[in-house]
Fold each of these.
Amino acid sequence: VIPRAYLVGLGPIGIEVGRALRARGIPLAGAADPTYAGQPLGQLIGDGDAGAIAASAGELYARRVDGELSVAVLCTGSRVPQVAPQIEEALAAGLHVVSTCEELSYPRLRHAELAARLDDAARAAGRAVLGTGINPGFVMDRLPWTLAQACVRVEHVHVERVVDAARRRGPLRAKVGAGLSVEQFLEGVARGALGHVGLGESAARLAAELGFALDEVEETLAPVVGEGGVVKGVQQAAWVRSGGRERVRLELVMAVGAPDPHDRIVVDGDPPLDVLVQGGAHGDRGTVGTVVSAVAGVASLPVGVVTSYR
Amino acid sequence: VIPRAYLVGLGPIGIEVGRALRARGIPLAGAADPTYAGQPLGQLIGDGDAGAIAASAGELYARRVDGELSVAVLCTGSRVPQVAPQIEEALAAGLHVVSTCEELSYPRLRHAELAARLDDAARAAGRAVLGTGINPGFVMDRLPWTLAQACVRVEHVHVERVVDAARRRGPLRAKVGAGLSVEQFLEGVARGALGHVGLGESAARLAAELGFALDEVEETLAPVVGEGGVVKGVQQAAWVRSGGRERVRLELVMAVGAPDPHDRIVVDGDPPLDVLVQGGAHGDRGTVGTVVSAVAGVASLPVGVVTSYR
């Protein structure tokens, strides 16, 4: 069954998702974004007759036909509190939800009550709610736990991801603080405006999927500083300890000119596995790929907030 | 829900699977193998009280308790016609089936009628039937299609796997024809006694999972010949063409002293992916890992013959 997609949020990723959905043959019921309200969607995402861009999600969901398999694709924000009302609105209108919201990949880590409320709402509606992307959502969680399926026993998983921010679009360079002073960087971090969102979520969901209790989930964040004290990017780590032992460690560097971009997953287990994604999985295109794949396969997702996902 | 496992076939892999199930905390109802009938299972797979080894699967399944979640773990053969009656017996007794049978990873490729009959029987029984292992079952099919989930579009997938047979147990060296003359090798191939079973199955299921029609599925097999005309192993390839274009190509070398053992998955798509399993995934331990993981997760498998499996 091919679902119909309702795209909410036309930032750079939302626009790419819209184009990719069309290319994949998934019909778009339309899109909503107040910035472009009333403009033809075809102008933004290429040819097509998905009508005028709605000013709100509610206006967009009114196009839904009863009984149809429909997915709200929310490309609107990184934090669960911000996206939760949008999820509830989509569920109430009868839609499944696939979102690029980073925290939604494992919402209970930072928002236990809200996550439980969303899970209840999704179950009551008989719909799936999935946060996905390349990271969180793939290279540092789903791919490692898929690899662990080939293991009799897993002692520890270590994932490192190095991204050269110079090869990525402007918003990523801004997000990692490139060009700032250390003082400005620290101020941005304190405001929650800088850094990668979702590393702790990846660590927690990976550990949970591997069967480890989440006794401690810790995170660190620091600037990568270049010549003259100018910030080039960010380095972050997250790890999970369970029963007094570290079980998962994720390390992420996103910096302008970061040498040797790659992803590496090392499973200490039986058998051991050492897997290298040469050059690293592309962040934006990979995120679009995971979103489009999830939308295409939404009918086979379990009901509720989906955090364990193969 | 933790299932109870019924192990059928106590060859080298069956014994390793039995030990791994215990280590993973999955209760073993017992095992069946006429070679060891009447002997305590604990002697073969380590401590435990799984009773005496049964002479037949039927005798073993008689231990099943009505309403329990039970899995027959069939480590008995590589070909579907050989294993099909065992699958039907297990289904009739109320068990799910997880098997190392290589052809069962995509049974419809070579045995369309039998595959349909097994699928009907499994659906009628409300049970899952899964053929798994490291290859087929993981490195050349399931792992590549998991990677493709991060792609907006896939044009072609190329997987190569190089195994140094010198580092593996005797049965593998025999299976690849190491030490034979070319004449003996070709005679063994003609008898169906030599070579890796399942490469075509991996290619077909990977292509099917990626959405490509299986217009042509082709395979080749040749000896790797060393000094003095002595065979060192086997090199095989399988590929799928769809709509006039090659979409999947798998290349496998298993030979004594094969240089640079590894698995490599190259996805030509958007984004492209180039993934290296450094040193290669271990065949036997990886197979045991996939089997134990599948048994542990059997409750979440779909009903029927499962060929698409994340």
Amino acid sequence: MKIKPKYFDDFHIGETFETEPNLISKDEIIDFASKYDPQAFHLDEEAAKNGPFGQLTSSGFMTLGKSFTQIFNTDVFNGSSMGAWGLDELRWTKPVYPGDTLKTKVEVLEKKLSSKPNQRDRKVKTNCFKSKR
Amino acid sequence: MKIKPKYFDDFHIGETFETEPNLISKDEIIDFASKYDPQAFHLDEEAAKNGPFGQLTSSGFMTLGKSFTQIFNTDVFNGSSMGAWGLDELRWTKPVYPGDTLKTKVEVLEKKLSSKPNQRDRKVKTNCFKSKR
């Protein structure tokens, strides 16, 4: 789903949108883990069998980046984003396995003026979840 | 700096440690952005000149993964981690440019029993900062 790029005034509190889905592959999980989260249960299929999830799982940092990219690819922030100041209450609630399909739902929670001149803040709730295969 | 892997009882509130530094390269910034954060100011050196930072900057998701990997590479959680439930109050306070060197300081803030059997939680504050070149 593509969305026309939005600026501050275009966001309305309570509005929601959903992204396109992406399939998560074993190769991507292992490639990401080797650089950014080299825990055995993200990196090594054999070792992961004895790990906390009993099988290989994606790094939560990877699903965070995938989810953001899904949102970005709707074009909603394309050209209008000035970068993010941070994240609050990030929770990884379910393990993500090779072959899972993820998509992201976004809800606009809050809009406020920034302390920086010419910048405005919008706070969104994003929920990245497994969709039906 | 290597640390002997620690379990719940080995962490003490208030203890701190620092990681080894890593140099952040332009190639890594662009490669990461192409997959996990394709905003122009992380992905395209020319376009970034007209962006909010005036030059190419690293994705904050990349520095998050780098910082975690720095911590992991101390061995402190090696074999003892059962995965993370989330992150609170993540703040990206300064842009990270190609050629910057980052390292991470960790402080143990809190220890508590988990609601899950056989699991225990420790909450740490991590601060990833630019070190002198």
